Amino acid sequence: MLVNLLDFDLQHLSEYCESLGEKRFRATQLFRWIHQRGAKSFDEMTDLAKSLRLSLESRCTVSPLKVISRQNSKDGTIKWLFDVGDGNAVETVFIPEEDRGTLCVSSQAGCAVGCVFCSTGHQGFSRNLNTSEIIAQLWFAEHTLRAERSTQERVISNVVMMGMGEPLQNYSALIPALKTMLSDHGYGISRRRLTVSTSGVVPMIERMGKDAPVALAVSLHAANDELRDRLVPLNKKYPLNELRAACQAYLEVAPRDFITFEYCMLDGVNDSDENAVQILDWLRPRGQMQLSAKINLIPFNPFPASGLTCSPTQRVKAFSQILHNAGLVVTIRKTRGDDIDAACGQLAGEVLDRTDVSSRMSKQKTIPLKAVESF
Ligand code: SAH
Ligand code: SF4
Q1: Most CB atoms within 10 A, among 134, 259, 319, 347?
Q2: How does strand 89-97 pair with strand 215-219?
Q3: Do residues 220 and 185 touch, judged by C-beta distance below 8 A?
Q4: Is 252 designated active site?
Q5: CA torsion through residues 51, 55, 57, 63, sign
Q6: Cα separation of 277 and 264, whole Å?
Q7: Is 264 a catalytic residue?
Q8: What is the mean pLDDT of residues 218-224?
């Protein structure tokens, strides 16, 4: 089996080069070719000795993901659907803004957390992505967009791990991918502009603080345990008091002096005045210090199986006002790319009924045409 070099962060690549009898600095050159220049054939890497190129050629590949489809939204948002084998697909979304380009990256095919308002959660868990499959989303998007814009300049300035899956339940693959994103020899994304969003895998928040302290977003959705248990089932394992302690500790190492809390506005479920006050109480329990927070209210993006609806605009505003009046910074997320189902929680990534896919896949190696047509 050939080694996919997209699986390695720079440290691992250096160790790999050493194992081939090469000097470590060769790894830096190789890493730059792959990630900064988007090279995938060793032939192109003209400043590497011919003998090294031949040796790499026989052992390694730079294998990106296969694109199943691409959709362009009216607002400039782009959504790619990538094939990750066995009938699974993951989605990656590019969101252009005036002063930045953000890529929303997936970490798993499906998700095991099963939040009731999330279509990935409804889909269930298929498998973890490996590091190469996570980084390939950025590799592909960055170099495709550069080529289309005829530029050598970086297009993607921000990455958010907010696509499909729970990144902190795929920790060992996530960390090398984050390191490659952060590396000056890789994508040079700053720690402040790289955000991991989690539903609250408490022990892994702490570990990430040691291994790759990037910006943290926590999906809160309710600030009382009884309701959060229902909306985000992981809360039963890591209840709100533990989550709060983990967030407080993370602030010590975080690149920003606040943590972002995402709160999906669900009509009649978590959007009352009382629910807003519960957030305030949770952020500052009696006698304790205030947890430094920014609240991001996300209008719920409906999908049929959820049976839920989004809070009316007036309710979202009133809710936001309560938090604002208490001195919190509150933003209401603009929905982007909803005409192509690229908005938060709309990433389902299911290609076809699985049984159907596997029977077709065994007969043919390419993606079934029906899958391409349906996106
Ligand atoms: N698993 C991680 C990251 C992926 S979800 C997490 O839960 O944080 C990214 C964000 O989209 C989360 O804040 C999630 O709560 C939100 N989200 C999920 N489904 C949604 C929906 N239908 N409408 C709006 N936001 C949704
Ligand atoms: Fe998983 Fe996040 Fe969706 Fe919850 S919101 S099911 S954690 S992807």
Answers
A1: 134
A2: unpaired
A3: no
A4: no
A5: negative
A6: 16
A7: no
A8: 98
